[in-house]
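Below is a filled-in request sheet from our internal design queue. Each sheet records the structural input a requester submitted and the sequence that came back. We keep these sheets so that new team members can see what a complete request looks like end to end.

REQUESTER: design group, bay 2
PRIORITY: normal
MODE: inverse folding
CHAIN LENGTH: 164
BACKBONE (tokenized):
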């Protein structure tokens, strides 16, 4: 029997996580909406997550077992190097949450997405322009969906107060 890599274990855990949460959606209280039940949106999101996690599992199984870490990758410095992208994302998200009352969802979200793409991706001027376009497009789209489609008002902030 061959060994599997860590990604396989994570994928199996996420599949179980999706299954548990999907079963919990059957106990969501019906709010009496005429168009659809209250459980539909969480179930849709969980089905998408389940499919993406299955793709992650198949890719992890195809990749094979993990390689042994090199000697220079051991210790705290190696750990920081190995998990620097995740640590950057956590730090940026923490700053986003702290500045949310001041910057608001739209402005803070655009800045968070831009900084995350810049930290994780390439850093050429052309890439900065692409990162800015992605950040403005995705966050504006999400804000419009929540504000106009779902009638959920996201935090406006003090810098850019929104008139609803």
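RETURNED SEQUENCE:
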């Amino acid at each position: 029997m061959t060994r599997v890599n860590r990604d396989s274990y994570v994928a199996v855990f996420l599949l179980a996580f999706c299954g548990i949460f999907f079963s919990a959606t059957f106990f969501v209280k019906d709010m009496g909406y005429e168009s659809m039940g209250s459980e539909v949106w969480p179930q849709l999101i969980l089905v998408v997550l389940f499919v993406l996690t299955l793709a992650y599992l198949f890719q992890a199984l195809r990749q094979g077992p993990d390689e042994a870490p090199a000697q220079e990758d051991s210790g705290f410095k190696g750990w920081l190097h190995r998990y620097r992208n995740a640590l950057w994302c956590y730090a940026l998200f923490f700053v986003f949450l702290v500045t949310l009352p001041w910057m608001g969802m739209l402005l803070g979200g655009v800045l968070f997405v831009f900084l995350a793409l810049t930290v994780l991706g390439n850093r050429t001027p052309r890439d900065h322009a692409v990162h800015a376009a992605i950040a403005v497009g995705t966050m504006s789209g999400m804000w419009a969906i929540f504000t106009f489609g779902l009638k959920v008002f996201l935090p406006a902030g003090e810098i850019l107060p929104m008139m609803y």
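SHEET NOTES:
- The two ends are 61 Å apart (CA to CA).
- The chain has a mean pLDDT of 87.
FILED BY: M.R.
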